[in-house]
Amino acid sequence: MLKSEKKSLIRFLLIYLLSTFLLFALAGLMFYSYETKHILDKQKDSLGHQAQKIKTQIRTLHNTFDKTLVYPRYPDLESTIYDSDKKYIMGTFKQMQLLDEEKLKRQTNRLFYVSKVEPHYLGAAYLLVTKNIDDTLLWELQKSIYIFMLIAGVFFSILGIFLGRLFVAPMRSSMEKMNRFIEDTTHELNTPIGTILANIEILESSDKYGTSEELNRIEIASKTLSRIYDDLTYLTFNHKYNRSVERVNVSNVLKERIAYFSSMADIKQIKFDVKIEENIYLDIDNNDLLRVIDNLISNAIKYNEIGGKIHICLTHRSLSVRDTGIGIAKKDIEIISQRFKRANDSEGGFGLGLDIINQIVRYYDYVLKIKSTLKEGTTMEIQWAR
Amino acid sequence: MGKIIMLCFLIFTTLISKELDTSESQMLQNRCLSCHVPQQIPDELVYRRYLMVYSTFERMENAIFLYMKNPNKKNSVMHHPFFFKFPMKKKSNLDDETLRNMIQAYLMRFDIKNKFTEI
């Protein structure tokens, strides 16, 4: 699975599962509150039946009016009778000496049932019946909801993965098509570019065309084409590319590449100011090093002014390339490393260069620093020693 | 010294209140029950009837006071047949305070809270 495809799938799954979870959580909450009310109402109804029983017993006590009266008692149930001023007369629930129904509503751990007693047997005008809430059924309900949420979660996750794959399939297909096209194109470009460059070398060595300006232009155009081809190949096959990291003499490679780009620089009358420390070695893949150096120098040429300068400095700590060109606005520096982003549209190019530099720098854990002032120039520095 | 005075005060007040209780019971016996008993008026039944209708001590006291001051069927909570068997009481000639004390003593004889066994 491609990286971008994976990213899209994860994003889709996150949004899908989060919204599904929220929906189910809301539904679960509503169901739970409805069922809780139902369960509590049922328990309250049973309290009502008990209250009726107690009232009958109170009436009997009132009618017999023995010398001593025994207040009716039940296990798991407490009750109290109050007079018409809501004052305590007798009962098993002694916590409330004055019947306060507002206070009862605030007690959430018990169920209360208050009923009027008429006529006032034993002087009782109100009967309060109370018991602890039987939370067994509530626990059962919670358990059922959790199990349902778990099963629904698993089901919708599987469904989400299936749907996600279905949705990204067209994107995957077009990306594969595009990659195949680039692979095929780059492969087809390789042979003609190689042929052109080889033939230019042959023509240069002959006396007839050796110093021809037209030939020089063809050589530069071919080299540019060759570099774009290299960049495209690098980016297209990057994820399949096996690097061969070895000790490379950066000083020698840099000198070779400056020589390679000299004809291109000559066209814009750009002069190189080169300070290269000898025998600087780095553990790096040779192709990666070539891509970095080529892109740094070609960008410095491309965005330089006619008759400008390129200062190249290689030390044991870093490689810096400074041009005297158009420069980059401060706000663009952050986003300029992104693929296909160009700081200025006045020059051609694919904007691949900086992206390639960025990828390589990140891979080797180097640091890329860009300093630039508009209309003064840009300095690109890669630091490897910290 | 303070403790002795306190103790004496407590003994004194206890004796006085007992004396008052006894005197009120005695007065109730002389002024009310002396007629109720020979006429076999069911005091407990009357109390239960008032309790059932008025619920609180104060309301019962006021209702009985009103009846004693102006005894008629309208001011009584007893059923009408009750008066076929027991004659209507004559208007009380006791002063208000004494009458209220007598009613309170009468109600205290049957007070419901004293009848319940402790839970």
Topology:
The complex is a heterodimer of chains A (386) and B (119).
Chain A: H1 3-64, E1 78-82, E2 88-91, H2 101-106, E3 110-116, E4 126-132, H3 136-205, H4 213-236, E5 245-249, H5 250-267, E6 271-276, E7 281-285, H6 286-302, E8 309-314, E9 318-323, H7 330-336, H8 352-363, E10 367-373, E11 377-383
Parallel strand pairs in A: 6-8
Antiparallel strand pairs in A: 1-2, 1-4, 3-4, 5-7, 8-9, 9-11, 10-11
Helix pairs in contact in A: 1-3, 3-4, 4-5, 5-6, 6-8
Chain B: H1 2-36, H2 43-54, H3 57-69, H4 82-85, H5 96-110, H6 112-115
As a whole number of angstroms, the C-alpha radius of gyration of chain B is 18 Å
For this structure, the quaternary state is heterodimer
CATH homologous superfamily caption of the largest domain in chain A: Histidine kinase-like ATPase, C-terminal domain
Low-confidence stretches of chain A: 339-350
Give the mean pLDDT of chain B: 82
Fraction of residues in H or I helices of chain B: 55-70%
Tell me the series of helices and strands of chain B, N- to C-terminal: HHHHHH
What portion of residues of chain A belong to β-strands? 15-25%
- Based on secondary structure, the structural category of chain A is alpha+beta
The overall number of domains of chain A is: 2
Please state the second-level CATH architecture of the largest domain in chain A. Answer: 2-Layer Sandwich
Number of strands of chain A: 11
Q: Please state roughly what percent of the residues of chain B sit in beta strands, choosing from under 5%, 5-15%, 15-25%, 25-35%, 35-45% or over 45%.
A: under 5%
Round the Cα radius of gyration of chain A to an integer and report it.
Answer: 43 Å
Q: Indicate the CATH class of the largest domain in chain A.
A: Alpha Beta
